[in-house]
Every structure is written in structure tokens, then in C-alpha cells.
Amino acid sequence: MSRVYNFSAGPAILPEEVLKEAALEMLDYHGSGMSVMEMSHRSSWFQEIMDTAEADLRGLMKIPDNYRVLFLQGGASQQFAMIPMNLMKHRVADYIVTGQWAKKAAQEAEKYGEVHVIASSADQTFSYIPDCTDLEISEAADYVYICENNTIYGTKFKELPNTKGKPLVADVSSCFLSEPMDVRNYGVIYGGVQKNIGPAGVVIVVIREDLITEDVLPGTPTMLTYRTHAEADSLYNTPPAYGIYICGKVFQWLKKQGGLEAMKEYNERKAAVLYHYLDQSRLFRGTVVPKDRSLMNVPFVTGDHTLDAKFVKEAEAAGLLNLKGHRSVGGMRASIYNAMPIEGVEALVTFMEKFEKENV
Ligand SMILES: *Cc1c(COP(=O)(O)O)cnc(C)c1O
Fold first, then answer.
1. Would you call 355 exposed, middle or buried from its count of C-beta atoms within 10 A (0-12, 13-18, 19+)?
2. Does the structure show a pLDDT above 80 at 216?
3. Cα first-last separation, the chain
4. How many CA atoms lie within 13 A of 77 on its CB side?
5. What share of the chain is helix, strand, coil (3-state, %, to 5)?
6. So what's the pLDDT on residue 1?
7. Residue 254: which H helix or E strand, with range?
8. Does 98 contact ligand 1 (Cβ within 6 A)?
9. CA-angle at 41, arms to 38 and 43, nearest 5°
């Protein structure tokens, strides 16, 4: 068996320990005589998996009692519709567009009401986060929406927008559990787990209780109503059971690493290795304004498409996989999520140094 360093933006690297544990439990979970994939979601085994996962997540994120945790399906993209369907009581919402994912969310919301793009960084290919300290928040806005970490462009909000009292809705798919966050600053936090937490197929929604209402837009399907899932404790229908089980294992792993403070410190150390190298390289450069740099997704370029392609190809041969940038940015992108060990980032930088020597 040989494992590579996988820099994919998602689905992405998972902790080896978690994968090994899941392998050990594959045929017989805790004496049940079956795998978690085969058991009833109404069984006491699975109930315990769910309860432990939620309790661990609450502990890690310090989620206050007036927030609910929902384990749903449909990916992050389904939330682009679910959010307006559930929250757009006045049919108005403000969106801050800092990349493709926020743009897609805004476009979806337009189906349900008036969408105001109150800030955007489209003018500079989304390479920065706009100043959001004093934006013109719409009087009737039901919420203000951000994508907190922009997976494709490698930017992150270091300071949350001033929403002037409106609930903040944040897509945290690519920075989920990468550092502590103060949940009280948000109305809704959500993310697909396949970036930093688990296998594709689960989306986690942390939502303030008062935003879970019966009063949703007419025609909202039962399955797309937060209340349905909140009332049934995420067991209205069959949940993505195996995915939730793996997420639960990752929560345990995070606790063992020392929780989110420790994770943040480790992620900062890891990202610094790469950014420090980029800042002095004669061949590569980062594409993001330094103050807005993400700890999770690091795009970089040589400025020469042919050389970029050569780099990606040679890196792959050296066991450094999935470094090709998103098709909309080009160049390279290294996603260095929680589970990427610092040794992986060091191996990448060593390889880049060698490539630089050979190609400058
Ligand atoms: C990947 C990603 C999405 C889309 O996730 P799906 O689960 O594939 O729908 C949305 N937002 C962000 C920030 C992402 O990184």
C-alpha cells in the first residue's frame, strides 16, 4: 500500500487514522455483526453514532443551546436554494460575492426574491475580500450571505461583515473546523463535508433556532424545509448514515489533536511554509492579496501555462497529486486541509524548489 499526498480541493484528504479505524470496523461494527452501511438508521447503534457526532461537534465549535445542528444531504449547492426558501420572508437578501460559489448562491436566490449584491471582488478576479465594515445593508433584507473561505480563489474573510443586525449566513464548506469560530455571530453556518470533514454526501447546517420556522416560501418541499429536519433530529428520512459515521470519527480525531485552537495553530504553521516559499520564489507567485489569504486553499502560478502544466505533471510523478488549479483561475492550487500533515506541505515546497532550480 502506498499513500500519496493529495492536495485535492474536494473530495479531499482524510486522516489516515480515521480510515484505518473505519476499515477495522467495516465488517463488524462494535459487535453488531454488520457494517454501519448495513444497519438501520433507527437502530440504537446508529442513534449513538448520531448523538455522539452531534455532541462532539457542539463541543468542538462551542455551539450555543439556541442553535440546532442538522445533518442533511444535497451538498452545499442544495443550500443555495434551501436558504432563500426558508429565510426570505420579505423576499429580499444581500449577497457579498467573493467567488464562484457565492455567485452561484446569489443566482439561485434570485429565483425566490430580490438579491442585492452589496459587495464583490469580481473586478480583480476575486483575488481579495472587499471591505465589509460599512456596507449598505438593505432595509428589508432577510439575511446577509457570504462564502467565508473561497475554495477556488484562495481568499478568506478574516473579519466578518458588519450586517447591521441582519442574520449572517455563511458557506464554510472549505474552512469548516479549520479554526475556532464564534457561532453567535451567525444565523446559519453550513458546509458540504467533503472538503475538510468527511465523505461527500453530507452537509452540516448549524442554524439559530428562531430561523427555523413553519413560515417558509409557498411550495417549499417538505424535504427542503429546515423545520422538517430539526423536528425529526435529522432522522425525518434515511440520513447519509455512513457519511455521518465518518464525520463523527473525524470529530473524535479533532478532539485528540487538541480541538480547533490547536488545529488553527497547526494550519497556520502549515500554510506559512508554503506562503513563505512563494513570497521569495523567482518562479512561482501566490495569486491572492496577502492579508486575505486562506489557510486551506493556496492558488499559485508561474505566469506561463506550459510551465504550469509541466509542474503539475512532474509533481504527480513525485506523488504530489491534484495540484492543478480550478479551470477558472488556471495555474496550481494546493488544498491543505486539516488532515494534510505538515510533512506533505514540506514535500511540496521541496519539490517546488527543485522545479524552480531546473526551470529558471
Ligand atoms: C465545493 C463547494 C461548494 C459545492 O459543494 P457541493 O457539495 O458539491 O454542492 C459550495 N461552496 C463551497 C465554498 C465549496 O467549496
1. buried
2. yes
3. 36
4. 6
5. 40, 15, 45
6. 72
7. helix 241-257
8. no
9. 90
Sheet holding 332-335, edge to edge: 285-286, 297-301, 332-335
Do residues 160 and 144 lie in contact, with contact meaning Cβ atoms separated by under 8 Å?
no
Residue 137 CB coordination number (10 Å): 17
Quote the ligand 1 centre to 193 CA distance (angstroms).
9
CB-side exposure of 171: number of CA atoms within 13 Å?
Answer: 31
Residue 278, pLDDT above cutoff 90: yes
Q: Which helix (H) or strand (E) holds 155?
A: strand 155-156
Length of the chain equals 360
The b/e string for 215-241 (b: 16+ C-beta within 10 A; e otherwise) is: ebbeebeeebbbbbbbeebbebeebbb
| Ligand 1 neighbourhood includes 101 CB (under 6 angstroms) | yes
With CA atoms as reference, report the closest residue to 267 among 151, 175, 181, 147.
Answer: 175
Which residue's alpha carbon is nearest to atom 10 within ligand 1? 76
> Is 195 part of the annotated catalytic residue set?
yes
All three cell numbers of 36, joined, read: 454501519
Number of H helices, E strands in the chain: 9, 14
Return the residue matching grid coordinates 464564534: 182
8 A C-beta contact, residue 64 and residue 86: no
The model carries a pTM of 0.98
User: Grid coordinates in use for 47?
Assistant: 442513534
Q: Output the CA–CA distances (angstroms, integers) from residue 27 to 22, 31, 44, 158, 313, in the order listed.
A: 10, 10, 18, 44, 38
Active site residue 45: no
CB 325 within 8 A of CB 301: yes
Q: Catalytic: which of 56, 94, 101, 270? A: 101
Q: Does 158 participate in catalysis according to the annotation?
A: no
Q: Check residue 142 and give its pLDDT.
A: 98
Contact 117, 141 (CB under 8 A): no
How high is the pLDDT of residue 167? Answer: 98
Q: What sign for the dihedral angle of Cα 105, 106, 111, 113?
A: positive
pLDDT at 269 over 90: yes
